[in-house]
Design a protein that fits this description.
Length: 297
C-alpha cells in the first residue's frame, strides 16, 4: 500500500470530512478525493460511506483505520524519543489525570515546571476515562489507583482521603452538624455513587446515602462539588488536598472519611529515558514533598 495514500486516508477518517482533511493536509478537496478513490481501487474495497453529515467508515475502513492509528502512535513515539535525545527539555508532553485532581491540585502547581522548562508544551487531558498509555493516548498519567496495564513504569506518589467540607458562611447560616442524623437539616454535595470516581470515595458516598438526607446535589467530578461548597450550597465530599488549597474550607464531622486512595504516576516503559517525562516526574515528586510538609504543618 502507498504510504502517502494511507496518510491521507488516516486524516480523512480522523476528520470525517474530505474538506477538513484537505485543510489539515494543505490539499484541495478534489486531490484528497482522488487519493482515497485510488486507494479504494488498489484494495478493491469501499472504505467510506458517503452520508449527509460526512463520511462514515465501512467495516473494511474501520480495520484500516485501526492499523493507521497504531502506525501514527508508533511514529509519534519514535519522534518523541528522537527529540528526547537532545539535552534540552522541550516539545509536547501529554499528561492525563482526573478532572478534579488536574484542576485543583496539578494545574495550579505547573508554574514552577514552566519556569524551569519554558520550552515545554503541556497537553493536559482531564477526564475520568482511563487513557491507554501503551497505545500512546497520553505520555504520563496520574491515577487514583494502581494501573493494571502491562509495560508501565509506576510510582506511588501519596495517599489521599475523601472527607466532608463546608464553607464558613454556610455553617454560620445553617449550623454545624455534630452527627450524621443532623444531615436532615443540610444538603449533601457529592459525586453520584454510580459515577466514575475513586472506589473509596464511592463507598463513602454509598454510606452517606444510606442515611436520611432530604436534599442532595450530585456532580460528575470533584471540581463541580468544590464549586457548590464554595458557593454555600451545602456540605461536600471532597479530597483532603482541597483543605490546603482552600484554607477557608471547614472540615465537618471529622470522624467521617474514606479509606486511603493511592495516587500513582505511570508512563510507558518505552519512555523510561525521556527527558520530558523525567522532568515532569521530578517536578511532581518535589511538589508532593512540599504538599506533605504543608499537611504536617
Amino acid at each position: 500500500m502507498d504510504w502517502d495514500k494511507l496518510r491521507i486516508f488516516h486524516s480523512v477518517a480522523d476528520a470525517g470530512s474530505l474538506t477538513h482533511a484537505g485543510e489539515t493536509l494543505h490539499l484541495s478537496q478534489s486531490a484528497v478525493s482522488r487519493q482515497i478513490r485510488a486507494l479504494e481501487e488498489s484494495l478493491n474495497v469501499t472504505l467510506f460511506h458517503r452520508h449527509a453529515r460526512g463520511l462514515i467508515l465501512t467495516e473494511q475502513g474501520e480495520l484500516l483505520f485501526d492499523a493507521t492509528n497504531a502506525m501514527v502512535k508508533r511514529l509519534d513515539a519514535a519522534a518523541a524519543r528522537i527529540r528526547d535525545s537532545e539535552d534540552e527539555v522541550f516539545g509536547e508532553l501529554r499528561i492525563t489525570t482526573t478532572t478534579g485532581f488536574g484542576t485543583l491540585w496539578l494545574a495550579p502547581r505547573l508554574t514552577s515546571l514552566y519556569r524551569k522548562y519554558p520550552a515545554l508544551k503541556i497537553d493536559l487531558m482531564l477526564e475520568e476515562r482511563v487513557l491507554d498509555l501503551p497505545m500512546r493516548e497520553a505520555d504520563v498519567a496520574i491515577r487514583m489507583k494502581e494501573p493494571s496495564q502491562a509495560d508501565l513504569i509506576r510510582k506511588r506518589l501519596m495517599n489521599i482521603r475523601m472527607r466532608l467540607y463546608a464553607s464558613a458562611d454556610y455553617l454560620a447560616e445553617h449550623g454545624t452538624p455534630q452527627r450524621m442524623e443532623d444531615f436532615s437539616q443540610h444538603r449533601l454535595i457529592c459525586q453520584h455513587a454510580g459515577a466514575p470516581q475513586v472506589a473509596a470515595g464511592a463507598l463513602l458516598v454509598q454510606e452517606l446515602m444510606s442515611h436520611d438526607i432530604p436534599s442532595m446535589l450530585t456532580v460528575n467530578n470533584y471540581f463541580g462539588v468544590l464549586q457548590g461548597v464554595l458557593n454555600n450550597l451545602g456540605i461536600g465530599v471532597l479530597p483532603d488536598y482541597n483543605a490546603v488549597a482552600f484554607p477557608n474550607l471547614v472540615r465537618v464531622l471529622p470522624d467521617v472519611e474514606s479509606g486511603d486512595v493511592p495516587v500513582f504516576l505511570a508512563y510507558p516503559e518505552e519512555l523510561r529515558h525521556s527527558k520530558r517525562v523525567a522532568a515532569f516526574r521530578e517536578f511532581v515528586t518535589e511538589e508532593i514533598f512540599n504538599y506533605r510538609k504543608s499537611q504536617q504543618g
